[in-house]
Design brief:
With 1454 residues, the chain is mainly α. The strands form two sheets. Strands 1-2 form a two-stranded antiparallel sheet. A two-stranded antiparallel ribbon has the order 3-4. Strand 3 and strand 4 form a beta hairpin.
Length: 1454
């Protein structure tokens, strides 16, 4: 028995050592001296030692020379003898000299597994010490010899264990060759041999031990990594320096050059098994004899038996290995996937029917190659062609696998391809995303939950790429011929985040995370200058061909972005037209004409382009239209065919490409018309083989028939190749087509069916890519627009956000509603805030409103809770409500400028907190300027008082100590602190304090929302408010907002005024709401008057609402109203200039004159205006006089207030004199005279007051007012009116009172009359010179004499009453007469002729004096004057003067 376990003495371990090449080893110590010689010598000893253990290798010494040592032993000994003689000449020694003896042992048929294994170990040791490097002499020959020897290794297998050891050592040596420093000297042939041998070991290992299996696969992965890691270092075009001997064009589709599991490259060697036969073990990890294993072994055996027929050899070159071997290796890896595809792998396959080990192994190797080669694949056309065609075809097929492992590996490859090669794989990626990922996630093809989870993970990983979504949108959604991939992804993620009748699963969370990733990336790209695109015109005015229009410059973003937006707009309208077309072709075309996407008069070219380039059309309808016999349809058909480019394309491929765009009609005549158009176009591009277009037509017909014959299950007898060739004789202009050409077409159709029944495209979805329709994909790839890289395309974020915002908000809301974990809830809130930021940045008000409304839904349930339940829920139980509340107010504070209708929902949240009683009064007092303490207190928010837990909280918050209450517990305090913390995080006060910075539209919406919230009515009773306290609170907020926006008061004023007016006019009983409305209105006027001169009248006019209050309401709040009016006047008197404004102020002041509580501040207001004339003006003079008279006549206050009022009235006359002196305008002077007259009339009315103090003081003030008129320019008419309406009227009224009323009612009337007489006397004497000039002086004088006469004759009640008055009358009259005489006004008839006096006035006076007091006549008139009077005809019945008639015995009256 041959031992197999003995290994070289210098090996560190047995077979289980890992195949790794030490990176840190150095050969320098071995180069000098005998270090390397000793190492080689030890390896020789190891090999010889193992050989001597076998009797076969023993040496028998004979006398003759016929029995010498075996050549293998001799060569080893000879090498031992030579190595020590080389000493320092190693650099000049070819490595083959000391490697060849070991290689001979490995290649010998006579050595067993143990000996071969030790020899392999020796080679491996020499390789890993890095003695061989790029500078070593003839290192390329040495490495090539090692590879050739190892790959053709022969040994006798005595037991399975020894065989596995040798196989592992073979793997070690081959991998060491690839990792050697001199590996760059390897040729393409060497590398291919290494990979081929390693794969054979992998194949054999399927029936061996687990260790060998894993080692072999690991080595294969290492080889692929090692090879393709050099791809980035290879210059472009290097792969063209050597021909690999095969084409990857059409032939690659017709015949698969590599059967699954077959040779990579035929090299003339095989790894022998027992007995030297090729192993037939199946390529499986468990060694089961399944169909795939048998098929693989069969393919491999066939290749081994006919090496010459199947091998594709790399030419031996001196160049280092490069792209040619990589092309071969990569193609071989792709071919491994064809095994499963060839046995019908697909979505309906049984997952147990095959072993997933084969595709997983192949996919893993491919993934490793792509990871290391990266974007360098795109620089080499042949490698790129393999990926575009064969690899992606297999990825599409395996993507629909029922195995999560396979799908996961496929998705990993696609991720790498997208990252590195997306620019070169535009349509392939679209197909994969649309037909694999999205369909799996849509639960199509019976995808299991695990498959959906893998697909969702992949999609989310893609979404995490910063520009994936932007690239999907720009490349596909903005392309009229592609699907709306971006929209499909967003809608799918949103839909997948919705749990259906169950809790959140991992797929829901994954979809949610995908949306969050998109939003975060978009948010991260925002800048302060993020542009808001101009709106594209919603109407295309005329048709312009756009079907094949490309961007002027894809590298210039200023050209690209408008182009993409325009194409997206066109596509959106085009999709609507396609939908109409799919329902009714005629209506569809008419619609497209109406929107100018087709010309008003249809032409064949535009309709053909519509069919050719529009995605989503029903291909059955397109085929029927193209097959119609009318002239227009035929023209459209030919124009449709002209849109194809069939150059350098085989007939069957061209036919496939053509028929993929529509469904071939079933009628033979339609088929003929379609094929005629196709044949004509194909012949234009392929005239090298076909003689004419008839030949193209006949051959196309023949291919359609062959396709039906071969792939219709109802046809039992299939057409043979000879039948097909025979059927097409003499069709090429009377000649035969080349047999090889027809044979190639025959096999192409037989192997790959032309799909004539296509999936309807009304939904815009793509058919699953198979080998049959993959040709069309390659064709479109060559003609499609270049891939748009979105590294700097953040300007498209606006367009994308408008599409994804709705689904994203809905998805996040659902997850937030269903989630329980806090980290998920926080992610939701972050997502809400990101959406809000983006919406605000792009001024998308509707999106922001929808977002806020969605978040507020999580607080709606709180409205129905009792106060105690509300507190407990908000503080402890309802985390979502708390987080939603904070999120809502964060959005309101940050992005309030762009909120519109959602202010209503935000206010609902505020009202919830208001009902809790936790809102600070600062919320309402944070206006522009500080208010007086009294005014501020009038609008402060009183704490809500209630029993129980809530009442204690409120009292604690507002420090309400008026009523004793139980101390809250620790739990209650903790709850309180929790709520306060949440409210502080909300910064609600900032919303209203900073409202002055809101945009106008948002501010107006906020005000309207406050009005709406304050006006809610109870259900079933529209006359009652839903919650009056809420209405009051909202009104106060409205007032606060109004005050904070004084510069924009006109924006708010109308709605604020209407709201307050509605409250005032609809309230008949005192209530807090009407109180806040009235006081708030006064507060607004108070604050705004200093800043809005142009609105002064408007603001003050609004105060007339106070005058419209119901009497009960006005009485209840009169004092507070008056206090506010006082503050308003004191602060803004100088701003009030118009009569309209002062009329409102004085009206408000006047009504307080008779109110017990309000009269004091009312009078203070009036005194502030009138004192010293500080704020009196012609605009308010009469109004203030009337108001002062109201206070003077009022008995609510004490007498002193009435007296002070009279003082104000009397003192105001000096203002009139001042104004008159400063005015030079006669008309203005007349106005001042009118004001003076109103003054004295007002004072006269107070002169009749029942209170003697007030009455007498009023007479004095009247006297002062009359005397003060000295500086006023008064007309004669005014003076006459003054005497007639004021002085005479006063005396008449006083006389009447004295005669008719009891002294108890009107005390001391004698004094009042005396003062009145003096008043009349003084005024007459003061202004006598002016009065004498009046034409009506006689009447005036007559009036004076008549009143004197009445006073003399009047008898006052009481003892000795009236004597003083009569004496006073005599004295006053005497003084008047004396003054009149001295001034010449009153003269005797004789003197009148000489002095110019008035004789009639003399006579009039003499007649009245006789009746008044004859004694007084003697005192006034001299003797001569009396004598003259006696001689006058006493019988004269009349004395005339200026038409004044006085009858004898009668007196005149004024």
């Amino acid at each position: 028995m041959i031992e197999t376990t003995m290994l070289g003495p210098n090996e560190k371990s047995k077979v289980n050592q890992s195949i790794q090449v030490p990176n840190g080893s150095s050969s320098q110590p071995l180069r000098g001296g005998g270090g390397l010689a000793c190492m080689i010598n030890s390896e020789i000893c190891a090999v010889l030692a193992v050989m001597r253990r076998n009797v076969r290798w023993g040496v028998q010494y004979m006398a003759d020379d016929d029995h010498l040592e075996h050549p293998l032993i001799f060569s080893l000994k000879e090498l031992r003898r030579m190595i020590f003689s080389w000493r320092n000449q190693w650099d000049n020694i070819s490595p083959l000299l000391f490697l060849q003896p070991f290689l001979d042992v490995i290649q010998s048929d006579e050595t067993g597994a143990p000996i071969t294994g030790v020899a392999l170990s020796s080679i491996y040791k020499i390789l890993i010490i890095d003695f061989l490097d790029i500078n070593t002499l003839k290192v390329d020959e040495a490495l090539s010899k090692i590879i050739d020897t190892v790959t053709s290794c022969r040994f006798e297998v005595t037991d399975p264990a020894s065989e596995e050891v040798v196989l592992m050592k073979i793997l070690q040596v081959l991998l060491a060759c690839m990792k050697s420093k001199a590996s760059s000297k390897l040729s393409d042939q060497n590398v291919c041999n290494i990979v081929n041998t390693c794969f054979r070991v992998v194949h054999q290992a399927s029936s061996k031990g687990e260790l060998l299996q894993r080692t072999a696969r690991h080595t294969m992965h290492e080889l692929v990594r090692c090879i393709f890691s050099n791809l980035p270092c290879i210059e472009i075009g290097e792969d063209e320096l050597s021909d690999v001997g095969r084409s990857h064009g059409h032939e690659a589709h017709q015949q698969d050059g590599y059967a699954a599991g077959g040779d990579l490259l035929g090299n003339g060697y095989v790894i022998l098994g027992r007995g030297g036969e090729l192993p037939s073990d199946e390529f499986t990890s468990n060694g089961s004899n399944d169909e795939l294993g048998n098929r693989t072994a069969k393919c491999t055996s066939e290749m081994g038996q006919d090496n010459e027929a199947s091998q594709v050899t790399c030419p031996v070159t001196v160049e280092a290995y490069g792209v040619p071997c990589m092309v071969e290796i990569f193609h071989f890896l792709c071919s491994l996937l064809n095994v499963v595809a060839s046995i019908g792998f697909g979505p309906q396959s049984n997952p147990i029917a095959y072993d997933e080990d084969v595709p997983l192994f192949a996919l893993g190797l491919i993934n490793s190659a792509i990871e290391l080669g990266g974007s360098s694949f795109g620089r080499h056309p042949k490698l790129l062609a393999l990926i575009q065609d064969e690899l992606f075809l297999n990825l599409m097929q395996f993507g629909l696998s029922m195995s999560p492992l396979i799908l996961s590996t496929v998705c990993s490859i696609v991720l790498n391809l997208y990252y590195h090669l997306r620019k070169e794989l535009k349509l392939q990626l679209e197909d994969f995303f649309s037909c694999v990922l999205l369909k799996i996630l849509q639960s199509k093809h019976g995808a299991s939950y695990h498959l959906q989870e893998v697909a969702m993970e992949t999609l989310v990983d893609l979404c995490r790429h910063p520009y994936f979504i932007a690239e999907m949108y720009s490349n596909f959604d903005c392309n009229i011929s592609s699907t709306n991939l971006f929209e499909d992804i967003v809608n799918l993620l949103s839909k997948s985040a919705f749990p259906v009748n169950g809790p959140l699963s991992s797929i829901h969370i994954l979809a949610f995370n995908g949306l969050i990733s998109i939003i975060r990336d978009m948010n991260g790209r925002l800048t302060n200058e993020s542009p808001i695109p101009e709106k594209i015109s919603s109407d295309i005015r005329e048709y312009k061909s756009f079907w094949t229009v490309a961007c002027e410059n894809y590298d210039d973003i200023d050209h690209l972005v408008p182009y993409l937006r325009n194409m997206k707009y066109i596509k959106r309208r085009l999709m609507i037209g396609a939908d109409h077309f799919n329902r009714d072709p005629k209506n569809g075309l008419e619609f497209l004409q109406a929107v100018h996407l087709l010309p008003d008069k249809l032409d064949p070219i535009s309709v053909a382009c519509f069919f050719r380039y529009t995605s989503g059309l029903d291909k059955n309808l397109v085929g029927d239209f193209l097959g119609n016999h009318d002239d227009f349809s035929i023209q459209v058909l030919h124009e449709f065919a002209r849109t194809f480019d069939f150059r350098d394309m085989q007939l069957d491929i061209a036919l496939r490409v053509f028929l993929e765009t529509f469904r071939l009609p079933g009628e033979s005549q339609k088929i003929q018309r379609v094929l005629e158009a196709f044949a004509e176009r194909y012949y234009e591009h392929a005239q090298n083989i076909l003689a004419n277009k008839d030949a193209a037509l006949l051959l196309s017909y023949s291919l359609i028939l062959l396709n039906t014959d071969q792939h219709n299950s109802q046809v039992k007898k299939k057409m043979t190749e000879e039948d097909f060739i025979r059927n097409n004789r003499r069709i090429n202009g009377g000649n035969d087509l080349p047999r090889d050409y027809l044979s190639e077409l025959y096999h192409s159709i037989c192997q790959n069916e032309i799909k004539l029944i296509l999936e309807q495209g009304s939904s815009g979805s793509l058919p699953v890519t198979t080998r049959s329709n993959s040709f069309g994909l390659i064709y479109k790839s060559k003609q499609t627009a270049p891939f748009i890289s979105c590294d700097s395309l953040s300007r498209l974020d606006y367009d994308m956000f408008t599409i994804l915002s709705g689904p994203t908000i809905a998805a996040i809301s659902v997850v937030f509603d269903q989630a329980e974990h806090e980290h998920v809830l926080k992610t939701c809130v972050e997502g809400f805030l990101d959406v809000a930021k983006i919406a605000a940045c792009y001024h998308l008000e509707e999106v922001l409103d929808d977002l806020v409304i969605s978040i507020c839904k999580f607080t709606n349930h709180l409205h129905s809770l009792s106060p105690e339940e509300l507190i407990l829920s908000f503080a402890k139980e309802d985390t979502k409500a708390r987080m939603a509340t904070v999120a809502v107010f964060t959005i309101a504070n940050r992005y309030g400028d762009y909120l519109r209708t959602s202010w209503k929902n935000i206010l609902d949240c505020i009202l919830i907190l208001h009902r809790l009683g936790f809102l600070s009064t600062r919320l309402l007092n944070d206006a522009v300027d500080d208010m007086d303490s009294s005014s501020s207190s009038s609008l402060s928010v009183p704490p809500r008082k209630s029993s129980g837990l809530m009442g204690r909280f409120s009292q604690l918050l507002y420090l309400d100590k008026e009523e004793p209450s139980p101390q809250p517990s620790e739990e209650e305090l903790a709850t309180h602190r929790s709520i306060i913390k949440v409210i502080q995080e909300c910064h609600i006060d900032s919303i209203f304090a900073e409202s002055k910075f809101l945009q106008s539209e948002s501010l107006l919406q906020l005000a309207q929302a406050l009005i709406f919230a304050a006006s809610r009515r109870r259900k079933g009773d529209n006359n009652l408010l839903e919650d009056e306290s809420d209405a009051v609170f909202c009104l106060e907020l409205l007032i606060t907002v109004t005050l904070n926006n004084r510069d924009r008061i006109m924006l708010l004023w109308q709605c604020v005024y209407e709201h307050i007016a509605n409250i005032v006019q609809s309230t008949s009983l005192p209530c807090p709401l009407v109180e806040k409305a009235v006081l708030g209105l006064l507060k607004i006027c108070h604050r705004l008057l200093p800043y809005k001169e142009d609105l002064t009248d408007e603001l003050l006019k609004s105060l007339q609402l106070v005058l419209k209050l119901d009497a009960r309401v006005a009485d209840a709040y009169c004092e507070q109203i008056t206090q506010e009016v006082l503050h308003l006047v004191k602060a803004n008197a100088i701003q009030i200039k118009s009569n309209v404004g002062w009329r409102t102020i004085t009206s408000l002041v006047s009504i307080t004159a008779r109110h017990p509580e309000a009269s004091e501040p009312g009078f203070e207001t009036l005194a502030f205006i009138m004192s010293d004339g500080a704020h009196l003006s012609p605009a308010n003079y009469i109004l203030c006089i009337n108001a002062a008279r109201q206070f003077a006549e009022s008995r609510v206050g004490n007498v002193d207030r009435s007296v002070r009022s009279l003082d104000l009235m009397g003192g105001s006359v000096f203002c009139l004199a001042k104004w008159c002196g400063a005015s030079s305008d006669d008309e203005e002077g007349l106005g001042i005279g009118e004001m003076w007259l109103r003054l004295v009339q007002g004072v006269r009315k107070v002169c009749l007051d029942q209170r003697e103090e007030v009455r007498n003081h009023a007479i004095l003030m009247l006297q002062m007012s009359l005397i003060g008129a000295d500086g006023i320019r008064l007309s004669g008419e005014v003076w006459w009116m003054c005497f007639d309406l004021v002085i005479f009227k006063l005396l008449d009224d006083l006389l009447e009172i004295a005669e008719e009323h009891s002294p108890k009612d009107y005390r001391d009337m004698e004094t009042s009359l005396s003062l009145s007489v003096k008043l009349m006397s003084k005024v007459l004497l003061r202004f006598l010179e002016d009065l004498w000039q009046l034409k009506s002086f006689a009447n005036l004088w007559t009036g004076v004499l008549n009143r004197m006469e009445k006073l003399m004759k009047m008898k006052l009640r009481g003892k000795k009453k009236g004597e003083n008055l009569q004496e006073l009358v005599r004295e006053v009259l005497k003084n008047i007469l004396v003054e009149m005489k001295s001034s010449g006004i009153l003269a005797s008839p004789m003197a009148a002729d000489t002095k110019g006096g008035d004789e009639s006035l003399w006579q009039l006076t003499w007649l009245h004096m006789k009746k008044i007091d004859p004694v007084l006549q003697e005192q006034v008139f001299s003797g001569n004057e009396l004598e003259q009077l006696k001689h006058m005809k006493t019988g004269s019945s009349l004395v005339t003067k200026d038409h004044l008639l006085v009858a004898s015995g009668e007196t005149t009256t004024a």
